[in-house]
Design goal:
Largest sheet of chain C: 2 strands, antiparallel
Number of domains of chain C: 1
Number of helices of chain D: 27
Largest sheet of chain D: 2 strands, antiparallel
Helix content of chain C: over 70%
Strand order of the largest sheet of chain C: 1-2
Number of strands of chain C: 2
Chains: A mainly alpha (103), B mainly alpha (118), C mainly alpha (488), D mainly alpha (667)
Shape of chain C: globular
Strand order of the largest sheet of chain D: 1-2
Order of helices and strands of chain D: HHEEHHHHHHHHHHHHHHHHHHHHHHHHH
Radius of gyration of chain D: 26 Å
Oligomer: heterotetramer
Number of domains of chain D: 2
Radius of gyration of chain C: 22 Å
Structural class of chain C: mainly alpha
Number of helices of chain C: 19
């Protein structure tokens, strides 16, 4: 059925998702939301991979998606862990509250 | 050929402009009268109540993380399951190693006493 | 459908396996031992084994493994040595540094080893998938290590910043991979390379080009090139010094490792013109911004962070020509930088106050009179980093610039020289403090920090110093090694 | 011995390692003060041995290969030492004079109270460590057989001189008492003297400008000739000058920029007078005898390049003579004994450059050697006075010292005569030879030269008469003054002998003497194939010139005697009537202030926009610091962007991404 839906649509969609994710990272200040946005970017990439791998019909893309998912999961875990750790020092989830290092 | 991808570029541009503008506008528009309500983190209309520590016991996060990780790792077993018969022992050994590593880390977590709720 | 079983050739990944297994061992043993320093020594043993394996593989046939996912050629093995040395030296620092701060936790060493594995993967990867895996293994370990000092907000903050920005950047990197994959139908460097060839007229394909651009972004972030360097000063500043030493050297080397391989294997020949200018510009602004910003620093640790940005610029100068001589220069530079920089950070680790983040320049005032040995060491490393002969740093710069000249890019070399002239100012600043200022009590009237020289860290200092001097006086053998390694 | 020439470098290094590592803890000052001079002495002996062997080979050069430093592709830098007349001359001067000064320093650097008890000074070993370091570096500079090693030595002497100038880094900058011009005129205020630390930094930074030029020059040689070996370069030089006529002038000019910095010529001479803040042996060794002459050595070494670039050479001659004249005028009114000598050093260096500029390379070397003798002697004499007067260096507080310090007095006289070019002293022959050659090239330059000679004689003896003769001005000091111990007087006497007889090296050929130095150096000097035709001026002309300079020298001395012994009121009256001119000289033409207003102030104005930057790292005053400060402020601005907000970092990164993408998309 990919025959009907041209590749460029998928690319467009994933690009949109990716851009939204990126925008989110730039705008949102809540660390958790930022994490979600990063996830979103990664999943946009996943979509691109899948689309391409169907289009080229090569399985590499799909395998890559597995990798990305695993990595993404780990990153979320790390992110949460770091945040929890940080909360022991400073009671906030605002990413810009953590600015003791500068200059 | 390039024309097909113009939208991607455009979208990137729009995204920046969007981000840039929305970061910049607050500095120019409107008077600065910070009060508690304003300086709070706004989550789509819902007020973020309480503080980070009082919300949920820490173990919750840890267990959640562990769940995510172990859950995702399982995902690698699916493709193996599909071609299980064709791969024969080779596949079994490979996956065996993989699982062993998973178990090792599980033991590590366990011995570290992360799973203790109290 | 029948499946033909792939030839895995575990020998080729021997060094990585060695380090990985050690890492798991460390994790496991950690559960049962009280004195965590043992783990450090175990890790050293494991690294030694890996080093031996790398050596024994050298000169052997460059064997691809795991269906050309990785390869153990001279290039990868030389880089392995760099990573192993970096890891070993920073473990030695850690043994003293963490001990003084009650930070001796077993996972530290395990994480450090995992990061090393990631770096080695990046060096050996011949497939974007493995590049990505290596990148993530390395980065994730480093995120945690950066936040390792739980007593300090700074450390955690460093970890958080590194993590958020790192994840952000690797998302772009991934997108680049996806685009390249879409354009070429493969993630294997060789195949990508063969896809881009004049006769197929694929060169101008914008999707591939943009993909390449995003790949460069990913690497530029890891090697801390302007304008992707923003995380560097804060992260280097906040992280435990032993970690900073490790990542300032290892992560940079790893980034360059696969950057060079990707460019030389996949985007070479007719394609070079497409990225040369971009990298050249990147190199110039990186050097300049790094150096100028470093001038303004009052904190030695942070100053070195900026200087490491500048050094990334110098190394990029060697990448731009896309020539063998350039690759050799880069390898040599990475090697020399490993020793100079870790040495300098070792001194910082000794002088750092326990309560504070970073290490203020005043603490170095009159060091020459307090400890001629330490001062002499710091002097040596500063001079070498400036690139004053006859120390190893000079040769790194010389080779890199020479590569640029060979490629008719003398202007790059000239800019580089001017920059290293600028860098003299802030490196000299430290020397001035140590030799020409009386010991000063800092703002709060606290006397200069007490320090003690413990065994492991002394080893680090001596080793790095010896290498800096010896290969400074006689760089030829090292350079020959690098020449062999350059895709030999 | 020739094969062992590397020992001359190795021995001082050995010395500095011993003293540096164990000096303070284990050896103690006495041992240190034996080891350091001993090493230099041994080096000297090796040099002497090599000298005789080279004589035996009648001056043909030998290259001693040590090891290959590096090989990049087809380019390789072997570590060779070049033993030939030129380098040996330098080696002998450096180690010989260096040894005497080491001996001198062993006593000079010991601080004694009035009862002659020595304080134990923990920094004592540091001094000799640096001093040995300097000797080694200088020898690397002169013995290297390629431009890279020369550059390495060039940098190393810079560093060691910086370390030595700043040796007393904890001493503050000093106010100078204004010059009193008698009643009804207001006294001339003087700028305060820089602190040693500041002076060292100033010297280092000013030198770095020159070094950049030098480095670029070496770089250009490399990219032109593809090699840095002297012999290969010189062999190619003529051919290259035919194929690419513009490149040789560029090379020579850039190298000369380096020389300007290192040898304190206009306009970069400003660091040398301030370098006097260092200990006197340092001033004698580094800032009079050896390091500052590195530029001259470099030009003589590359003589063929310079003969191939006549215009550049002409400029060198002009700059040299201008410097000579300019510095001499300043020296006329200095009240600080060491600064008088400093400016005279600058001036004498000017002579040397004038000589090499007009192609009289032998004359230049000749003057380099004799100058090393008598100027070292003068500085050591000044130091001896300082030592006796507890570091008072202002000649207005001296006087009548001759009966207190006989040896110092006599030797200082000898040095003064040599410097003034009094007939039959060493300085006379060398200076006269230079002036003769300059006259050949251009009488106008010669005129300035002879004028300078007169001033030299005058200001030298002005200082002598004020310091040693007449009535003591500061009785307290006078009472405590005393002749110094053996090491100092020994060094003085030996140098005095050399200062008298040094001239024998190059007795004028036209009088029928043999000019040893000429024969000695001829192997080093390249003849251009289409020979520069030898038009020698008539012997009578030579005699006339020699006569003139003799008369001028004597006249200068006589004038000084008349002014400061017979009619002390005259100079004051002159000064009063020409107060503005006098002040101008006393303020060294306000050059430092000029640089300050030209470079520092604009820099600061611009940078005041940003928060304060580098002042912790670098001291103010010199103009490079100004611009460094400026850069530093930019750095501050840059690090302001590093404001700790992760969102901003992300945004900046993202913008970078966009630029990257657009670049790759649009090409």
């Amino acid at each position: 059925m990919i025959g009907q839906v041209p590749l460029s649509y998928y690319l467009l969609l994933s690009a949109i998702l990716f851009a939204i994710g990126a925008g989110g990272v730039l705008i949102r200040r809540n660390v958790i939301i930022v994490l979600m946005c990063v996830e979103m970017m990664m999943n946009a990439v996943n979509l691109t991979f899948i689309a391409f791998s169907r289009y080229l019909d090569s399985t590499t893309g799909q395998i890559f998606v597995f990798m990305i998912m695993a990595v993404a999961a780990v990153e979320v875990a790390i992110g949460l862990a770091l945040l929890v750790e940080l909360n022991r020092h400073k009671d906030t989830v605002d990413i810009n509250e953590f600015n003791s290092l500068q200059g | 050929m390039p024309l097909d991808y113009i939208p991607i570029l455009i979208l990137f541009v729009i995204a920046t402009i969007l981000a840039g503008v929305s970061l910049a506008l607050p500095h120019f528009l409107g008077p600065r009268l910070p009060n508690k309500a304003k300086s709070e983190v706004v989550e789509s209309g819902k007020l973020a109540y309480g503080d980070a520590r009082r919300r949920v016991p820490i173990q919750y996060y840890i267990v959640a993380m562990l769940f995510i990780i172990f859950d995702i790792e399982v995902l690698f077993l699916y493709p193996w399951a599909v071609v299980f018969w064709d791969l024969k022992w080779f596949g079994l050994v490979q996956v065996g190693i993989f699982t062993l590593l998973l178990i090792e880390s599980f033991v590590y977590v366990w011995k570290k006493g992360v799973l203790e709720w109290e | 459908m029948p499946i033909e079983f792939p030839v895995l050739n575990f020998v080729a990944v021997g060094p990585m396996l060695a380090v990985t297994i050690t890492a798991f061992l460390v994790m496991f043993i950690e559960l049962f031992v009280e004195d965590k320093r043992i783990l450090g020594y175990i890790s050293l043993v494991g690294l030694a084994v890996a080093a031996v394996l790398s050596f024994s593989l050298m000169g052997a046939f460059a064997a691809p493994a795991f269906q050309t996912m990785v390869i153990s050629d001279g290039y990868a093995l030389f880089l392995n040595l760099i990573f192993i040395i970096a890891a070993a030296l920073s473990i030695l620092i850690s043994l003293s540094y963490l001990g003084e701060r009650e930070l001796q936790h077993g996972e530290y060493y395990a994480l450090l080893l995992f990061a090393t594995v990631g770096m080695m993967l990046m060096g050996a990867a011949t497939d974007l998938m493995i590049v990505f895996m290596g990148l993530e293994i390395m980065s994730i370990a480093l995120y945690i290590l950066a936040a390792f000092n739980r007593q300090q907000l700074g450390s955690g903050e460093a970890g958080m910043k590194y993590f958020v920005l790192g994840a952000f950047a690797s998302a772009f990197f991934l997108y680049g991979v996806a685009l390249v994959y879409g354009a070429t139908g493969s993630t294997n460097l060789q195949e990508i390379g063969s896809w881009f060839s004049v006769d197929r007229g694929n060169l101008g394909d914008p999707i591939a080009l943009v993909g390449l651009g995003l790949l460069l972004v990913g690497f530029a972030f890891k090697i801390a090139a302007v304008p992707f360097q923003w995380w560097t000063p804060d992260v280097y500043h906040g992280s435990p010094t032993s970690v900073t030493a490790f990542m300032s050297v290892g992560a940079k080397a790893a980034g360059f490792a696969s950057l060079v391989r990707v460019l030389m294997v996949s985007f070479n020949e007719a394609f070079t013109i497409d990225w040369q200018l971009a990298l050249a510009v990147l190199a110039v602004i990186t050097m300049t911004v790094g150096n100028i910003a470093a001038l303004a620093q009052k904190d030695v640790k942070r100053m070195l962070a900026y200087s490491s940005i500048a050094h990334a610029g110098y190394i990029l100068v060697g990448v731009v020509p896309a020539s063998m001589i350039g690759v050799r220069a880069v390898l040599f530079y990475l090697f020399s930088y490993t020793f100079m920089n870790i040495g300098a950070f070792a001194v910082i680790a000794i002088l750092e106050r326990r309560s504070e983040v970073g290490s203020s320049i005043q603490d170095y005032a009159g060091l020459a009179s307090r400890s001629p040995f330490l001062a002499g060491m710091m002097l040596l490393f500063m001079v070498s980093l400036t690139g004053i002969p006859p120390f190893i740093g000079f040769w790194g710069k010389l080779y890199v610039f020479w590569a640029a000249v060979q490629a008719d890019m003398s202007w790059l070399a000239v800019i580089g020289m001017i920059n290293s002239a600028i860098s003299a100012f802030y490196y000299l600043g430290v020397v001035v403090q140590m030799y020409m200022r009386p010991v000063a009590a800092d703002e709060d009237g606290v006397e200069a920090p007490a320090f003690k020289l413990t065994g492991p860290i002394m080893v680090t200092l001596v080793v790095t110093a010896i290498v800096t001097v010896v290969f400074g006086i006689w760089p030829t053998p090292l350079f020959n090694l690098a020449s062999l390694a350059a895709f030999g | 011995m020739t094969q062992l020439i590397w020992l001359t470098i190795a021995l001082p290094i050995l010395g500095l390692l011993i003293n540096g590592l164990f000096g303070r803890r284990f050896l103690g000052n006495r041992v240190v003060s034996i080891i350091a001079p001993l090493m230099v002495l041994l080096a000297f002996l090796v040099g002497v041995g090599a000298f005789f062997e080279t004589m035996g080979r009648d001056g043909e050069a030998v290259t001693v290969h040590l090891w290959n430093w590096t090989t990049i592709g087809d380019f390789s830098v072997p570590i060779n030492l070049l033993v030939d007349p030129l380098s040996l001359t330098m080696v002998l001067v450096v180690t010989g004079v260096g040894f005497l000064i080491h001996v001198y320093a062993t006593d000079y650097m010991v601080h004694r109270d009035d009862h002659g008890h020595a304080h134990d000074d923990r920094d004592f070993p540091r001094f000799f460590t640096f001093l040995n370091l300097f000797i080694a570096s200088m020898l690397v500079l002169v013995l290297g057989d390629n431009y890279l090693m020369m550059y390495v030595g060039w940098e190393l002497v810079g560093v060691s001189s910086y370390l030595l100038i700043g040796y007393w880094f904890d001493r503050p900058s000093e106010e100078q008492t204004p010059i009193d011009l008698g009643p009804d005129t207001e006294p001339v205020q003087l700028q305060p003297l820089l602190s040693p630390a500041a002076s060292g930094m100033k010297a280092f930074i000013v030198n770095r400008i020159g070094d950049v030029g030098f480095a670029l020059g070496v770089f250009l040689i490399w990219s032109t000739f593809g090699t840095l070996q002297f012999d290969e370069v010189f062999a190619e030089a003529v051919h290259v000058s035919e194929t690419m006529p513009t490149v040789i002038p560029w090379i020579t000019a850039l190298l000369f920029v380096g020389a300007i910095g290192k040898s304190a010529q206009l306009p970069l001479y400003v660091w040398l007078p301030d370098a006097m803040a260092g200990p006197t042996p340092v001033s004698a060794l580094i800032h009079a005898a050896t390091m500052v002459t590195a530029g001259v050595y470099m030009i003589v070494r590359s003589n063929i390049l310079y003969s191939l670039a006549p215009n550049v050479s002409l400029w060198i001659a002009i700059i040299g003579m201008a410097t000579a004249f300019f510095a001499a005028t300043i020296a006329l009114v200095q009240v600080d004994l060491k600064r008088v000598l400093a400016y005279s050093t600058v001036s004498q260096l000017g002579y040397m450059f004038a000589a090499v500029g007009v192609g009289a390379y032998t004359a230049g070397m000749f003057h380099l050697v004799t100058h090393a003798f008598f100027k070292a002697l003068l500085f050591l004499g000044a130091g001896s006075v300082m030592h006796a007067l507890h570091d008072v260096i202002d000649i207005r507080r001296m006087g009548g010292l001759k009966d207190k310090m006989k040896i110092t007095w006599i030797t200082f006289w000898i040095g003064g005569l040599a410097l003034a070019g009094f007939p039959l002293m060493s300085g006379f022959f060398s200076k006269d030879e230079i002036l003769a050659h300059v006259f050949e090239a251009s009488p106008i330059l010669w005129f300035f030269g002879i004028l300078t000679a007169g001033m030299t004689a005058f200001y030298t003896f002005r200082a002598i008469f004020i310091a040693f003769h007449g009535k003591p001005r500061d009785h307290h000091l006078y009472e405590h003054a005393h002749e110094n111990r053996a090491p100092i007087t020994f060094a003085l006497s030996v140098l005095a002998v050399l200062a008298i007889f040094g001239g024998l090296l190059g007795l004028p050929a036209f009088m029928g003497f043999t000019h040893y130095l000429d024969g000695w150096l001829e192997h080093v000097l390249y003849e251009l194939p289409h020979g520069a035709e030898e038009h020698h001026m008539s012997v009578t002309m030579e005699y006339i010139l020699m006569g003139t300079s003799a008369v001028i020298a004597v006249g200068g001395i006589a004038l000084a005697y008349f002014f400061y012994m017979v009619q002390p009121s005259i100079p004051q009256n002159i000064a009063r009537s020409l107060r503005s001119l006098f002040a101008l000289l006393a303020h060294k033409y306000w050059i430092d202030e000029l640089y300050d207003t030209l470079f520092v102030q604009p820099g600061l104005k611009l940078s005041n926009a940003f928060a304060n930057g580098l002042d912790k790292l670098i001291i103010d005053e010199t103009f490079i610091d100004g611009s460094a400060k400026l850069v530093g402020r930019f750095g501050k601005l840059l690090s302001k962007l590093e404001n700790g907000y992760t969102s901003n970092y992300a945004l900046a990164t993202f913008i970078g991404v966009l630029i990257m993408i657009s670049y790759f998309f649009l090409r």
